[in-house]
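Hey, I was hoping to borrow your eyes for a little while. A protein chain has come my way and I'm curious about its shape. Take your time with it, there's no hurry, and the full record follows here:
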Amino acid sequence: MEEQKILEKTIQNLMEDPDIKIFLSRDLLETTKNKLSELLKNLPDFNNYLIEKKLTDFGSYIFETGVPVKIFSKITNILENILPFSQNMTKNYMSRGYLIQMIRIHKEAIFPVYLQMENMKEIKMLEHFRRHLLYLLQVITAIEEEMYYQFEPFDEKKCPLHNWLTSDEATKIFDKEIKRIKNIHNSIHRLSTLLLERMKNFQYYSAVKIYDEIFKNSLHLLFYSRSYTENLLTEKKEKLQKIVRKLRSLSEQDTVTRIHNDIRLFKVLKIHMRSKKEFYIAIFDIDDFRYINQVYGFKIGNILLKEVAKTLESFKSKYKILNFKTGSNSFVSIIFEKNVENIIKDIKKSTENIELDVKIDTHSVKFYPKLTAAYLKVDNFFSSPDEVLEILDIVLYRGKRENKGSIVSYDKKKDSKIEVAKCLDKQIFLGYAIKENKIKPFFQPIFNIKTGEILGFEALFRIERDGEIYPAGDFINIAYKTGLIAEVDKLITKYILSNMDILNRYTIFLNISPQTLKEKWFVESARYLDNCVFEITEQMAFENINKLKMLNIETSNSMALDDFGSGYSSIKTVVELASHNVISFLKIDGAIIRDIDKNRESFFIVESIVKIAKTLSLKTVAEFIENKRILEIIRNLQIDYAQGFYLGKPSPITEINNFKILKTKE
């Protein structure tokens, strides 16, 4: 009966305090009542040790309700005046339970966040803060494990952070705030010593208040460190984003004609297809363009491309039309007019009236380009930009085969047969090549530009057919569409594993498809591919970022972001992958490198990529090094590694030891 009266009086007094009432909701009040009832039950049968334990447990419970130190003090004062225990026992042992629980939560949930210091490798200052925090962690661990008798605290002057805070560097960073930061740091060390003394003397009530002050001061100290680093990183990210915005803008522009390219075409097509409004798309292909380049030279070929682009753009004032440069000798126009065939005839006629004067030796030759044009209506029949462009390509293929120089429109019956026949032929042959082991791995050397030494090789594949070797480009699209790319990847991976005695002295760059990433065999095999760098595309990285992080943890392989600068360029994804050490290399898109000696925009793109890479501590690899001039340019841009036909062609494994060290000075 006496227990019930004590319980009711305790609850009544707690609820009369407006501050306590805010924190003890109806549900918590009921639980608190039950906990108090448990505490008071069979009280006469307990010795002091058991009472201390019960009070300690009740103090732990109060912390778990989310009650702050100030309110906890009020609760202990009320309970001390009502509960029938000896003087200070209630307040002291409830405080012990509250303190231990508070320390455990901070140790498990809060300290690790600060101890990780993700950007420590970039900002050395954080290491000083981290070492100070480790000392504080040792203090609270000593309290949690009741080892405070053995633990010897040290004053602030022996802490590595103190030495750094007195440096010119710290004063420069924190300016007027440095004095306050020093005082906070000194206070933490002095309070830590005081805390340990209170624990040794069983003064738990005052220990709670001291620890609360230590923790608040520590958060202030860490706020200064992290706010500085976050500002620094925000600046860095803004700088990177500015570069990438420029990079993206340039990557959507054709480097020769300066009109939009196929990357921009895909995006624009996607937007207009979503509107569900019908429009037309046409492709203009310059006939015999390869012959023009061979006979008259690439310079004349580029002049022709510029003139065709200029002519196409001139029609924008006359018709609702958008123009794009695609492929090596093709232009695509999106037309928002009904009289599409007349518009195409008009464009074709004007383009074929372009007159070029070409000097060959002492003679001057005039020639006029010829075009084959194909078009189709884009309506709800098509499900994606990929499908539209693929069908448009098939219509053009039929036009060039049947009557080069003509204008052809989409014929569902004819073009479907061609599409099926082309795809089926490639699919059947690719399946046969996989089954009959006709997939042949080739290896292209990657050189360290500074030292001239071979870093390693990129593993590529070729297909053997009737004694001929065919490049992967002829089959890669169908391999992805049919899912056979995973089988190709598997064969190449097996080949590398079975020839590790030859390859283990090199770094092997291995292309990985999204399909392969999902395969169980790949994760298992990756553990034995210590010398491999997995090449992934930007889009694959964006869509599989968590899987890539997990793969990195499981295998510890480095990864390279392939074709960087080709238009996707999600800086957020790149920064995230780099900060988690998932990627170590940026492989610069070969299409940009190939044009770097002729085009200022290409040069700027590559220069920007190098800046991004250096900011993120990533190594750069330039592909498509096709001549001495390109090699000199990328060397001056301080790109780390290079590969391309000028340096070494893809070769079978039997020839990889024949490559010589690259000359560091040409």
About this structure: Residues 117-251 form one domain.
